Amino acid sequence: MLEQRIQQQFFESADLKYQAAEVLGRPIEQAAAALVAGLTAGGRLLVAGLGASASLAQLVAAELMGCFERERPGLAALALGVDGPVLSALAALPSAGGFDTVLARQVETLGQPGDLLLLIDSVGDHPALLAAAVAAQGKDMTVIALTGRTGGALRGVLSETDVLVAVPHDRRVRVLETHLLVLHCLCDAIDLQLLGEQDPA
């Protein structure tokens, strides 16, 4: 009984990834092109997510700053919202709107024109992420939103130059699993653009 349930988890995850490959290829390509253009022009990537997505934000920032699968110079990437004391200080500001403004405050402080903001959320509705997207647009930054099925409220705030990568599923854990694959596709595409094809081992 339990073994069948475990196998079903694998089958569901594999099915979603197969479906997503057809739907997400183009938006992932657009996101990769925006990242390469911004990072090679001296821009930085700010990455933010909440809950489990914050861990994905830290992971992709580390893979870009360090390396993914091949050695290369580090790329300027920083995960927002992962420093407890900074979050507490920003949320406690008299002018702050509590937690919903802490990511936007970091974007306003650290972001520059030409930088990029990558937002990761299984739905795309959290006010903190919406505020961060608006703050990035106010700084002339490109926003890439990695969400679940519909894109949530984030879809409504993105401009024509921004990119939405919406995983076609509603179950949070399946979306998160696919987000990890999407992030690795982005890292691979960036390395391919910067380093060319990898020689077969």
Order of helices and strands: HEHEHHEHEHEH
- How many strand units? 5
User: N-to-C terminal Cα separation, in Å?
Assistant: 42 Å
Largest sheet data: 5 strands, parallel
Tally of discrete structural domains: 1
Using only C-alpha atoms, the radius of gyration works out to 17 Å
What helical percentage do the residues reach?
A: 40-55%
Q: Quick one: CATH class?
A: Alpha Beta
Average pLDDT across residues?
A: 93
Keywords summarizing the entry:
globular, 5 strands, 7 helices, single chain, Rossmann fold, about 200 residues, about 55% helix, alpha/beta, five-stranded parallel beta sheet
Fold and architecture overview:
This protein is of the alpha/beta class and 201 residues long. It has one domain (2-195): Rossmann fold (3-Layer(aba) Sandwich), CATH 3.40.50. 55% of the residues lie in helices and 11% in strands. The protein is built from seven helices and five strands; from the N terminus they run αβαβααβαβαβα. The protein has helices at residues 2-40, 52-65, 84-91, 102-110, 127-138, 154-157, 172-195; strands at 45-49, 77-79, 116-120, 142-147, 163-166. It has a five-stranded parallel sheet with strand order 2-1-3-4-5, with helices on both faces. Strand 1 (45-49), helix 2 and strand 2 form a beta-alpha-beta unit. Helix 1 runs parallel beside helix 7, helix 2 runs parallel beside helix 7 and helix 4 (102-110) packs parallel to helix 5 (127-138). The longest helix has 39 residues, at 2-40. The chain is globular. The termini are far apart. The model has no long low-confidence stretch (mean pLDDT 93).
